[in-house]
Amino acid sequence: MALELKLQLKLAQKLVMTPQLRLAIKLLQMNRLELGDALQAEIEQNPALEEEVSTKDFKENQQSLSSTVEQKGNNKESDHTEQVRAEDSIPETNWEDYANTFDSNVSFSRETPAADAPSQFDFISEKPGLLAYLQWQLAHSELDRDEWDIALFIAGNLNRYGFLECTLEEVMEATSCDHDSAEYILEVIQDLDPPGIAARDVSESLSLQLERMGMEDSLAAKIVKDHLGPMQTRNYKSICQATGHKRAEVVKAIEFITSELTPYPGLPYSTETTNYIVPDVYVRKIDGEFVVHLNEEDIPNLKLSSGLQELLQADGDMDKSSKSYIKEKLKDAGWFIKSLHQRQRTIFKVMDSILKFQRDFFEYGPTRLKPLILRDVAEDIEMHESTISRVTSNKYVHTPLGIYELKYFFSTAIPRQGEEALAAESIRERIRMMVKEEDPYKPLSDNAISLKLKEQNIKIARRTVAKYREQLKILPVKHRRKPR
């Protein structure tokens, strides 16, 4: 079969992502903090983009500058120094008196700080991580070089909860030490702060804390060592039978454990990044009406560089490459400003539409949240669902009831016979309120909550109640029951 070349014309349509469209989507997906960083970066790298200074800011800067100049004028120093004549006498320094200012009884020896004296870490705003805190304490211990290496290896193998994640055999293999040395250094670290550090599990950590308090032979020590499981499920009967103590004594010991001890001693030193939330939009009630306001604080008013535009219009002896560069930068700056304005308009439209659908929520609270899907808002403001999805992700609104992510207002419908359907989030809020108001000595089970909801014409299964309870991070009934 012979091969041959042919020319063929074909019409086809395909979606092309232009750089301008990519920029618009990128800005739309950013939250408030990310947008501020993106604006600053674009201003720095594009000379055609300028920040427009308002008349008010200009006047304030001028007044500040004028007051500074005036203050300098009042405090103006003479440009000429006073003349010094040769016959003027200069007072002699008495070096003997100067030397005598030092008291011979002054001691320069290093003092050992008191046990309760504040450490250097008490004077800094950001607390050190667990490893740094342990290293600082170990530096004050009398360890030789080999012991120091063992201590660093053990400290470096503690997880964020403060538990040791390796065995003594692994310590011995990594540091080439014997079992006694590894065990001794582990005990040294376990004597450091925070109490309970470098334990293998929760039981050992709690035991170390009780030992630090001198309670190693107490009922609490027996419970954390041998009956931690029954304690977590509040199985007092089992603990009483195993220890031979009365119920009141067991309850008192467990209350001490839960209130005075820390199951995860390393957690307060965890160096996780704090994610700050800055609302993109505000909903305020003014004269009985809810009004949407964009949060444009710290967002600069951008404009095209007038200097570059004048330079381009003047033309003159500008070479072709320079002219092309300026045109390209002005074009990019124009698209950036347009995309920024489009982002703000889209967020406003989406929030205004949400306010229209969820007015009862803003008026009466979360229990009045209505079912809402992305398509409802998309059809209302005539935009695509994907655009609504980008707007509602990682964006927040400040309301009189608190700060909420925009996605919070979208929820599936739970039908009710003969009545308007409720949002799933509204059901979760009702469950949260029921648990909050329950009798702590007789907490509600998942089945009891399901029956209470049924009385409100909300029919959901016990499994659904359990799922919603877990989403709310509410403990099961056996962990919520308070002993009498």
How would you portray this structure in words?
- By secondary structure, this protein is α+β, with helices and mostly antiparallel strands.
- Among the domains are: 140 residues, Arc Repressor Mutant, subunit A (Orthogonal Bundle); 129 residues, no CATH class; 59 residues, Arc Repressor Mutant, subunit A.
- 51% of the residues lie in helices and 8% in strands.
- A 4-stranded mixed β-sheet has the order 3-2-5-6. Strands 1-4 form a two-stranded antiparallel sheet.
- It is extended, with a radius of gyration of 35 Å.
- It starts with 18 loop residues before the first helix and ends with a helix.
- About 9% of the residues have low confidence.
Largest sheet: 4 strands, mixed
- Low-pLDDT runs: 77-82, 86-90, 92-118, 120-125
Please indicate the percent range of residues in DSSP E strands (runs of 2 or more).
5-15%
Number of strands: 8
Question: Which range best describes the helical content: under 10%, 10-25%, 25-40%, 40-55%, 55-70% or over 70%?
Answer: 40-55%
Structural class: alpha+beta
Distance between the termini: 93 Å
